[in-house]
Automatic annotation (TrEMBL):
Record HAMAP family: MdcB
Single Gene Ontology BP annotation: prosthetic group biosynthetic process
Keyword set, alphabetical order: ATP-binding, Nucleotide-binding, Transferase
Protein name, UniProt field: Probable 2-(5''-triphosphoribosyl)-3'-dephosphocoenzyme-A synthase
Species name: Rhizobium multihospitium
């Protein structure tokens, strides 16, 4: 299965929207991710996946709590603020998120990745930007993202040091290639395979991401063995036809249950799926 490269998706017209609408669509993307089942190991409206500390109601509450911060990030982007200012908004967002979830880390990764895209959408509204929002993230803030020392005790920082993977920071600095080269084309393919079933398209994109992404959450929970297990299962699902088969949901459910049994949760891929859904709204 092949997907087009990022360059093949350009030129792209970015729709100009006000910060309030950008914030609303960021929350919508997070909630659509929750309302997707079966996503291997992940929380959904059906079950809690491999998570004992969170459920769909908590994730929905977390997403709605973050809306003012996505708006603030879009406003900061519109005034061309630097990474230090965006980071401060992100830190405030994380504190509010943890207050709302009683300390549970529901959306920290999304605050970073989706937050940068919200800032890019705000900036794009002030200029004639004719490329993906991810490319704008890389051009405007990529250097600062890479040059900041990673947080020593974060899961992403631990995984980056232990397994020599770039993680969310490298993804953002490169223009979000997993969003544009993997998730977006897989969403389109899922819609062709299961016409009229948006949930199926989201499952297809999630599987496509799991098949290739060095997901920090998988590596943190289970190391390379767990990552390879997850990749093999997702690749087999796609090779068998993905959501184009009549019984695809049963197969995806079996994979989901296998992930839960091994305590695997590809949270990074969940964030990337939400980011892909967000960018679809603003790019044509």
């Amino acid at each position: 299965m092949t997907f087009p490269l990022l360059a093949e998706l350009s030129p792209i017209t970015v729709k100009h929207c006000d910060p309030a609408l950008i914030g609303r669509h960021a929350v919508r993307a997070l909630i659509l991710e929750v309302e997707t089942w079966p996503k291997p190991g992940l929380v959904s409206h059906i079950d809690n996946g491999a998570h004992a500390d969170m459920d769909a109601a908590l994730l929905r509450r977390s997403a709605r709590t973050l809306e003012p911060f996505f708006i603030a990030l879009a406003e900061a982007g519109a005034t061309d603020m630097g990474m230090d200012h965006l980071r401060q908004i992100g830190m405030e967002a994380e504190k509010t998120m943890r207050d709302a979830t009683v300390g549970v880390n529901t959306h920290r990764g999304a605050i970073f990745g989706l937050g940068l895209l919200a800032a890019a959408a705000g900036l794009a509204a002030t200029c004639d930007w004719q490329a993906p929002l991810g490319a704008l993230v890389a051009q405007r803030w990529g250097h600062d993202i890479l040059n900041r020392t990673p947080e020593h005790d974060s899961h992403g920082g631990i995984v980056a040091r232990r397994y020599q993977v770039g993680g969310a920071r490298a993804e953002a600095a490169a223009g979000m290639p997993s969003v544009y080269d993997i998730a977006r084309p897989a969403l389109a393919e899922g819609r062709r395979l299961a016409m009229g079933d948006e949930e199926a398209a989201r499952v297809h994109a999630c599987m496509a991401l799991i098949a290739v992404v060095d997901d920090s959450n998988l590596l943190y929970r289970a190391g390379p063995e767990g990552l390879n297990f997850a990749r093999d299962k997702a690749r087999a699902f796609l090779a068998d036809g993905g959501v184009g088969r009549a019984n695809w949901r049963w197969d995806a459910k079996a994979i989901h249950e296998a992930f839960v049994a091994r305590n695997l949760s590809p949270g990074g891929c969940a964030d990337l799926l939400a980011m892909a859904l967000f960018t679809e709204v603003f790019e044509s």
